[in-house]
Amino acid sequence: MNFKQLEAFIWVAELQSFTKAARQLYMSQPAVSFQIKALEENLQVSLFQRGDKRVVLTEAGHLLYPEAKQLLRHYNLIKAGLDDIKGLKTGHLIVGSSTIPGEYLLPIMIGGFKEKYPGIKVTLKVAGSGQVANWVREREIDFGIVGAPVQWNETECLSWFKDYLVLIVYPSHPWVNLDTIKLADLKNETIVVREKDSGTRRALEQKLAEQNISLGELPIAMELGSTRAVITAVEAKLGISIVSRYAVSQALSLGKVKEIKIDGIDMSRNLYQMRHKQGMLGYASEAFISYINDQENLLKFKRKLMS
User: Fold this and answer.
1) 209, 227, 230: which is closest to 218 by C-alpha?
2) Beta bridge partners of 233
3) pLDDT tens digit string along 43-57?
4) 167 plus 156 within the same structural domain
5) Of 59, 85, 111, the domain-final residue
6) Burial class (CB in 10 A: 0-12, 13-18, 19+), 207
7) Which residues, 6+ apart, have CB-to-CB distance to 173 below 8 Å?
8) Residues 238 and 194 in one domain
9) Strand partners, 278
């Protein structure tokens, strides 16, 4: 019996699938099956009942599972400690992110982190908040950053970074000379929005709901899959929109769009860190999370974003 066999056993037990376990372990399915078979032969018991769509633990498997997890946890702690001593000269973490943090925040933060730990490889996967949440739940990434909290039993969301939604119009729009508008005025304008799975759209829907307004009450011109596309649509006079200040800061400074204040509404929103409750984060992941949570680093990132 070895730790590779125990790790394969734990992933198959938790994901109830040899295929998903193989993907998580970066192994072929036959290789995972071989590890499980070797473990069963070593222990002289059957650990899984194999079905058409999933595998489940036998009585012996249920007995082994908590002990195997504890053994592997101790093993990973020892490895993490050794990595710490080596100064994190090697490592790999996979971060998933929704569009706003993935395109505007995390590249800056990853750059700073790589300066401190040049030997650690960081993979950044960008998609809508819903897809990122699925990646976390399926443990295809180490952790995620999303634009709206997702409440699932297997995962947890922690408030992380404050973003601000701003109303933007094209420079020749009749509102450009107004100090503020009322939220209800949006009902008379054509609006461009993000797709339904977007954290920005969820945040906008929440802000409208707080004022007893549904997004469905607004004349929606189009739904687009990225904030960059939304901003371009506003520049092209296809409608107005509400987007992240970080995403639109360059277009505002160049005068391609104009910001209009909405009277009496707090347009701030939080971005969230999301992780699996049963996930075993490696030392590289813990180091990155600590880095992006450091208040000095956050202030430095904000200055870069707004410069």
Assistant:
1) 209
2) none
3) 999 999 987 778 999
4) no
5) 85
6) buried
7) 237, 240, 258
8) yes
9) none
Helical axes 3-15 vs 29-43, angle rounded to 10°: 110
Contact residues for 205 (Cβ-Cβ < 8 A; gap 6+): 214, 215
CATH code of the domain covering residue 71: 1.10.10.10
Tell whether 187 and 231 lie within a shared domain: yes
* Residue ranges of the chain with per-residue pLDDT less than 70: 84-87, 306-307
Instruction: Report the amino acid identity of residue 112.
Output: G
Paired tokens of 176? 């450009």
- Break the chain down into helix, strand, coil percent, rounded to 5: 50, 20, 25
Cβ-contact 192, 243 below 8 angstroms: no
- Residue 38 has φ and ψ, to the nearest 5°, of -65, -40
Q: How many residues are given for the chain?
A: 307
> What pTM was computed for the model?
0.67
Q: Which of 85, 115, 141 is the last residue of a domain?
A: 85
CA distances from 32 to 55, 205, 287 (A): 13, 44, 30
Q: What count of other Cβ atoms lies within 10 Å of the Cβ of residue 142?
A: 25
Tell me the residue range of the domain where 109 lies: 91-161+270-306
* Tokens read off for 245: 């200040």
Q: Which two tokens stand for residue 275?
A: 């992780």
215-262: per-residue pLDDT in tens? Answer: 999 999 999 989 999 999 999 999 999 999 999 999 999 999 999 999
